[in-house]
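TL;DR need structure tokens for one chain.
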Amino acid sequence: MATALADNLDGATPTAQPKRRARRSPLWWPAVALPAAVAVAYVVANRRLTGDLEYVLGALRTGEKAGYSPSEVFTHRPYFYRWFIALLDKLTFGGPAVNEALIGAAGVLLAAAAAFALYVALLRHLTGREAALTAGAVGLALTLAPRNDFLQPEWAAVVLTVLALAAALGPEKPWRGALSAALPLALAVMMKYSTAASAAIGVLLVYAVDRGRAVRLAVVAVPGAVALFALSVLAGSHEWQWTEDMPQLNASTIGRTGIHPRFILERSAEFLADRAVESPVLLLLPGALLLVLCRVRDRRRRTELILVALTIGAGAQAVVVVQGNWFMYHGAQMPVLAAATWGLAVGGARRSPPWFFGAVSLLYGALPVVYAELPGDLQRPYVVWLAALVALLAAVVDTRLEARARARAQSPGGRTVRPGFARGILPAVLVALAGVVCLAGSSWPGSPHLVQFGKVLATNSGYLTSLEDSEREADRIRAELPAGVPVLYLAFGDAAYLVDHPAQCRYPIATFLQRTRFLADVTELKSFRENADCVDHDPAPYAVLDRGWFRPGKVDPALARRISAVYDCPTLKESGDVQFVLCDRRSGT
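>> reply
TL;DR here they are.
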């Protein structure tokens, strides 16, 4: 069976492949699906949410208790993403651990549904094995995503883009596919606006399979995204204001810092290395791409795919550079792209699986834990890049072996061996299992939770320990508060999430106020003035202050005077080393 990528000899637009029935081994799906399901179940039960998700949930919950819907509460995230998280939250119950496990399970089901839809659509364009491994790898990359990626706007945009890919490639009629894909692709843009990069990558991936469908998709998706943005502005009274003001909170954007090519190149190399430590499948991307391209025999088609791949890579990194914060989750699309390429590379093997590449895939499943245990002198970006080189060399060896096998089969005396269980199904299962292990590499307790400049700053187990400490601090504050009393949160969103007392205004988290610690011109924003009014216009009876995040002596002086005029906070001498304190409203205010 020809595939849309590997065997398009004349460079023409690929067409859907005819379906044919093939005898399948009953061991194929269970042997791979069961270990994958165990890994997913373990992750759902133990992952917990990262602080950014707690920020959003804390703002939505405490804002709702103050009478504001997700349309009207500020969370530093756009309209449609706020509603996405709010709807997930409505499905949950119980304490924090159970609640977060249920939210995680709902996210996993969404990712699994997107992956299955992609599998069904790819069957029209790829062989059954290619479709299964590609869609399966995408699904696992999403469901086993590192904690810092999972359910973030970038992650949600990738899930929606996968759904759009399935909708665009599945139907027999291209225009029907484009119209079906327009909504999920437009919603992908609405997750954070910068996530338009993920939507654009989706269009490029469709282009790699079918140029005509890609053009149709772009034609309908762009006005769809504009229409959704207009809807968000109409539905939320502050949405346009926040859209203008939110970018001004970031001191690191290119608009503020300017373009410095050398810094961008060096920092990108460090970022990609850090990203690969958290998601080792990214180390396999160059080798997987080589395996795919070596099967394309038409030179023009190969050149076209190389250009598409380079454009996708540049776009995926550019969105990280433009935002300027270099947060790991800004590159959440990268591991999913790498996983898809890996599945296509392994599933498209004709005569035997890429054994050397598969062995490296298996070993790299343990790489995050091993790297976290390395001495500090060896936790360097160049070590990670050497690991990527090893994977690329393994792929080179496999391409050589594949070329020799093809030459022998095409020689006059060559003999084609029909693959049986030992030559066909069993090797495919073993290499697929290696991929499962690799994609689960970020989930182990000893795997890195946070990496920066090559250094592992926290592991998964360390993060869970710190979360327990935060919960105890929140319990201490909550024990000092009367039941249900409103609170002014001068603390990051995880404090609001854990304390869980009502806010008093539409700005549950004092994000605009805290940013004056770094950017004096934030005081000129209308959103800052509204946020500052939360302090002394109908003030809450109590304020929760986190001195580590919100430092009254560092923020705007006029704001600091307004806070001290309303709230009596413990001094450093009174509280000692405690950073998380409760402030009382002064009498007469």
